[in-house]
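Need the bound structure for adenosine-5'-diphosphate, inputs here:
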Amino acid sequence: LVEQVATLEAERRLNHLQDDFIATISHELLTPLGFIKGYATTLLRQDISWDDSTRLEFLTIIDEEADRLHELIDNLMDSSRLHAGTLRINFQPVRLEALLRDIALRSSTRDDKMKIQLKLNAPGLQILADPTRLAQVFENLLGNASKYAPDSPITISLDVVADRALITVADYGPGIPPEHLENIFKRFYRVPNNNTSVRGSGLGLYICRRIIQAHDGEIEAESALGNGTTFKIFLPIKHSEGEDNSSVQEAKT
Ligand code: ADP
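Answer from helper R.:
Posting the output first, comments after.
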């Protein structure tokens, strides 16, 4: 009887989690879809003629919301692949300094409000990693810094600490309350009552952590309310010079 009750309880909890998941995801998908549908229907109305600037404004919203929907679906797919252990990581030699310079340049070109300072102290440092997945992690952290600390400069640093590469991404924004720090890496977790106008799914940092773990690395956050947030990423330095170390591995959960 005790066993049966425990099984029923586990099933009930699982159902509850699945319901929560469906509710969160439906809401996240429906919001951009609602904008797209609303503005497209408005533009299609025959009884009103829109001037060029209004039409451009509505089309820009549709374009941005379609990008957001795309990003959300990408995140959901990555998240479920990571959960199932089927996300492929293509290891190859990567020069971290070049990768970080490239990401900083791309991000600040895309968003001219983003002011990034680089402090790269490991010239020529090469590790084995998947450059696309690492770029995804850093772009996510930069995207978060610009969403949650919009007027703050961002500093990216690279050092070697005890045989590991240490990369930090720091902003000087509002920070994260200490009781939420570890939870922010959980799937769908968003800090309650933070700036509610900032949209998100709570998947970004979960994906970042899983990708870094698939590289045998670690990611952690340090923050003090009012004093900004620093994400620290540690990655193992493996010798790859002159060896053909490229390999494909599945990210294990
Ligand atoms: P999302 O941004 O989609 O909500 P994330 O997993 O990327 O999801 O982040 C989880 C939560 O961590 C965010 O909702 C936000 O509350 C908090 N957070 C992340 N980065 C920062 C930052 N740089 N400054 C303040 N809060 C942050």
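Comments: The chain is about 45% helix and 20% strand. The first helix runs from residue 2 to 44.
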